[in-house]
Please model this.
Amino acid sequence: MKYATSRITFRLVALFLIGVPLVFASPTPQAMESVSLQDGQQGRLVFSTDSDGEYQLAPTLKTDVAMTITGMIARVKVTQHFTNPSQQWVNGVYTFPLPEMSAVDHLTMHIGERTIQGLIQEKQKAKRMFQKAKIQGKKASLVEQHRPNIFSNNVANIGPDETVIVEIEYQQTLEYDQGEFSIRFPMVVAPRFSPSNKVITEFEGSGWAVNAEQVPSSAAITPGIKTPGIDDNHNVTMSITLETGFDLASLTSDAHPLVINEITPQQFDIELDAQQTIANRDFVLRWRPVPSETPQGAFFTQQKGNDNYALLMVIPPYDDVDLSRLLTKEMVFVIDTSGSMHGESMEQARRALLSGLDRLNPGDRFNIVEFNSVATKIFHTSMPVTNDNINRAKRFVRELQAQGGTNIADALNMSLPRTLDESMIRQVIFITDGSVGNEEELFDIIHDNLGDSRLFTIGIGSAPNSRFMRGAATFGRGTFTYIGAVDQVTEKMSQLFEKLESPVLSDVKIVDSSGNVLGEQADYWPNPIGDLYLGEPIIVSLKLPLDQQNLSISGKLATQDWYMDLPISTGGSEKGLDVLWARNKIASLSESARTPMQRKNNATAITELGLKHHLVTRYTSLIAVDVTPTKPESEQVKDTKLANHLPDGWTKHKPHGQLPRGATSAPLNVIMGLVLLMLTLLLSRRRKLDLGK
Model:
């Protein structure tokens, strides 16, 4: 704590002087019915007004989630109830998260006794249809994708005291790692940091971030934030039907208490213990088979037309490889100390980094990069693992505090390039909540600077940005680990280091019986298949001719060639595998496009896949329009944006360390900045001397 002043001073100087300002805005919803907080409106979303003590009611939202999990597949229905408590007609916009690999393929709108099924349309066409319905006074719902894990639902013309129910359905593949199955349902969109090349002239938009120059969609992906204790009106109910296919050794949730009803040893009905759960942290369900029934593979099929779609999971036989030899490595730890990490997230991150330092071995080298608005290194270059160096690093870690923006670009540019002996294995451990809006820019940096390093991401906090975390690990040829609570740090870091200390299965391909890599008529996604680490399975979606009988998987495990024959004439029957195949292909096309021409070509292919398989993508949306106008032409309508809860553990006033706007002139800011910079250099020098003692 004795260095807190110097750290804060340094970050303020950086914000005055660097050319990457923070971009934020406060929610500014439209006016509606005026109420006071003494009118019994606690638990209802209200907006403040210019009149002291007066607030305005906004549409309320309740979400019901129903999951059906069988085999390796989850089918999920998300039902959103939009209720207008005011006496005005309103349009509602709600930004919400879904799993980053969810295949959103169904939309139904209920208005009283009427039911309207949604249709997939090209994105701009769907927008035009929605705007036309709004003007005509018709009820309509438009579901759009802003990121693979962030969607919005626009609902038009909700009448006074009226409820419109919108059902959104999607399908996804389960996660499987080191003998454990899991599914994650995100409940909240955390505020996103969006860097900009331009100076802020005014605050605008609907969330923490405005449409910055580098992130044109930043307002859409960053909704407003509810006030805890006043507008806790968005709650979630959840029911799950789980059919495992094997007996279980454990069935748990990371952070939510459950009510579990065992129907059979392999079938369970599950609900959240709290019927009305505040949507402020991600839900994670985990189950582990009894050791004797731990699967080594799975194969499910679906015939559709002249094609056979399939989902394949195979566990490579790591037991055949000598895992006893420790690999000498250079380990670079990167830790996020931005404002969004304030509170429990910062504690998780510190413990994760300290745990990582304890797992280093003699002969290894290491360094630590800290970043928020700027990035800094503890050592000029990676240092040997000695008691003095480890103790100095631990003192540094224990003093870390959260403030400032989330400038991941600087951290990647500082940590990825190799600076030491190329014979050492180089691994970068990136600890962050990933609360940024410029994911594509960051993926480009990883692609251009990775070299032979490998990037492992650790998602921290109650609602990490899994789109960035998983994408960065994919581009970085590493893995993504999610730590949702402090008491999980030791177990999760131990599992990660077991992977880091083990050989990698690389160059994985699926070939036909003749040894040829599958082509257009028989293909698989993701393609290419990424590197795999100890305990990780190969999971791919395939499209095969009906007469395909056998396949093989080949790869390189450590220094050994490896392959496995796969008889595919039999397999379990499952629905929706064609949708999963299309979703995986869309993801691969999106990730492989790194040039403007590739992006243009892939946009056409993604649009065609979305339209053919009825999927929401970057270029296609789901639209449902009632044929009958319900709003009288004379009635005015208000646009409102429904806020999200602040993620559990976050501090409302420190999401990214905002600075207040003032009337100080620019020249005076520069002078103040220079004075503060000199003070910072003196304090920083003293800090380094003390750390070296």
In short: Residues 294-321+504-613 form a domain with the Immunoglobulin-like fold (CATH 2.60.40). Confidence is low (pLDDT under 50) at residues 1-33, 36-50, 197-211, 656-670. The longest strand covers residues 60-70.
